[in-house]
């Protein structure tokens, strides 16, 4: 398919990068740092919305890192040959979906330092990013871990920004968000009606995401019901019914390898309880994104390092290493130390970078220079002595006598010459 910039320039789409319910994302043939989102159902999208978004470009909105791009915000509208909006160009973000942090094996390949400390830092960054959007009058709406791209260093970028709720600065018109991910949607949105969102709706999804990150991917509203006769509800059903393992763990069947609630630092647990308890009914009672960011930053200063494994970190209130205890209980080492192969109870994925799987000591990167083969026979002399003719060789004493005789002869001659002259 051919798409065009509004001026008529052709944009050549290259390999697909991903796709969701709304559109497909493609690399561009000529421009490596941009990509295109092409809508599946372009009728629903207006140029007006995208143009208003581009006018509200977030260049002055800052995240946690001055040089990191935090939002894949639309840059240019893309049209078909009839001038109908088909999608847009945006910055290309390299990285893995945030869901890779939920899984110990995927985490090993997704980030450079796969530790629980990094997980806490990432959670804080997501919270700060949302707080920044809320300050700018934007509500993410479709908050989900697949809409957050994670860099190898643990920095985060929001994608799917074209569906956010924002206000057109010129007209004052509110452009609404029309898409939600039910597993992260606040209970009042489960009716599916497009309503004007408030930041507190993002805050509900954020609380779920933070718990899920800190609890090894366990969604607080998912699980097998304790009542064996009850049907297993979806996360959205459980959100509506307030079935969550933070406040009501007894409503779910406890799994042998389930994460214990005390993995959550006390203040985090407090915020989660406020959000899923009182905040379930009253959006105003939910901790804000900046509350979460502040709390998670503080938690980052309260972590302990394990004596046995540098990749194990846990909150200081636990007293001993939770990850060692879980490994010893047979649940695998979720944060295996590098270079210590016997701590990994989980199967190592084939895609693990070579540097993380090679046994210690590592083989040299380039082959060591080979020493020349040793000869198995006596080496010939470098410069052989000239052959001595047989029969010409004199004994040492004869040489000495000849030298003395020669010296006497010379002395006799000299004395004869001297006496003749006198
Ligand atoms: N700017 C981008 N750079 C790199 N990958 C992206 C970008 N935008 C989206 N993606 C990838 O494509 C997937 C789908 O894009 P998204 O905009 O979320 O589509 P949908 O609206 O259909 O959910 C994302 O989950 C992400 O993996
Ligand atoms: Mg998406």
Automatic annotation (TrEMBL):
Q: Name one GO molecular function term.
A: ATP binding
All residue ranges annotated as the Protein kinase domain in the record: 11-301
Bias (Pro residues) ranges: 360-387
Report residue spans for region: Disordered. Answer: 357-389
Record-linked PROSITE patterns: PROTEIN_KINASE_DOM
Keyword set, alphabetical order:
Kinase, Membrane, Transferase, Transmembrane, Transmembrane helix
Transmembrane residue ranges: 397-421
InterPro entries with a match to the protein in the record: Kinase-like_dom_sf, Prot_kinase_dom, Ser/Thr_Kinases-Pseudokinases
Q: What is this protein called?
A: Protein kinase domain-containing protein
Q: Which organism is it from?
A: Amycolatopsis pretoriensis
């Amino acid at each position: 398919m051919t798409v065009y910039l509004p001026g008529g320039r052709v944009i050549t789409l290259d390999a697909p990068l991903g796709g969701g319910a709304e559109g497909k994302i493609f690399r561009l043939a000529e421009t490596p740092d941009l990509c295109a989102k092409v809508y599946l159902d372009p009728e629903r999208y207006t140029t007006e919305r995208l143009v208003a978004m581009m006018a509200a470009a977030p260049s002055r909105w800052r995240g946690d890192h001055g040089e990191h791009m935090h939002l894949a915000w639309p840059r240019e509208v893309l049209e078909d040959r009839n001038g109908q909006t088909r999608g847009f160009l945006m910055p290309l973000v390299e990285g893995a979906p945030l869901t890779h942090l939920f899984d110990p094996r995927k985490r090993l390949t997704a980030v450079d330092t796969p530790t629980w400390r990094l997980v806490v830092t990432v959670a804080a960054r997501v919270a700060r990013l949302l707080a920044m959007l809320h300050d700018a009058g934007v509500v993410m709406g479709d908050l989900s871990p697949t809409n957050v791209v994670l860099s190898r260093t643990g920095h985060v970028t929001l994608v799917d920004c074209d569906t956010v709720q924002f206000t057109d600065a010129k007209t004052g018109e509110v452009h609404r968000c029309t898409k939600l991910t039910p597993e992260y949607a606040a209970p009042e949105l489960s009716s599916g009606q497009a309503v004007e969102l408030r930041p507190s709706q993002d805050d509900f999804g954020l609380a779920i995401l933070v718990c899920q990150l800190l609890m090894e991917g366990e969604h607080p509203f998912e699980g097998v019901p304790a009542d064996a006769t009850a049907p297993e509800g979806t996360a959205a059903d459980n959100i509506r019914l307030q079935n969550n393992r933070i406040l009501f763990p007894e409503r779910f069947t406890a799994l042998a390898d389930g994460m214990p609630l005390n993995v959550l630092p006390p203040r985090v647990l407090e915020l989660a309880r406020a959000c899923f308890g009182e905040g379930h009914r009253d959006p105003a009672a939910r901790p804000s994104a900046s509350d979460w960011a502040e709390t998670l930053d503080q938690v980052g200063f309260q972590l302990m390092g394990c004596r046995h494994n540098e990749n194990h970190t846990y909150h200081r209130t636990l007293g001993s290493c939770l990850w060692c205890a879980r490994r010893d209980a047979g649940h695998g080492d979720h944060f295996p130390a590098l270079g210590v192969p016997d701590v990994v109870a989980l199967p190592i994925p084939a895609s693990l970078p070579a540097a993380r799987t090679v046994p210690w000591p590592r083989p040299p990167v380039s082959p060591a220079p080979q020493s020349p083969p040793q000869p198995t026979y006596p080496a010939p002399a470098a410069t052989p002595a000239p052959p001595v003719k047989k029969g010409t060789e004199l004994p040492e004493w004869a040489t000495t006598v000849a030298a003395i005789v020669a010296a006497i002869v010379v002395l006799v001659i000299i004395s004869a010459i001297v006496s003749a002259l006198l």
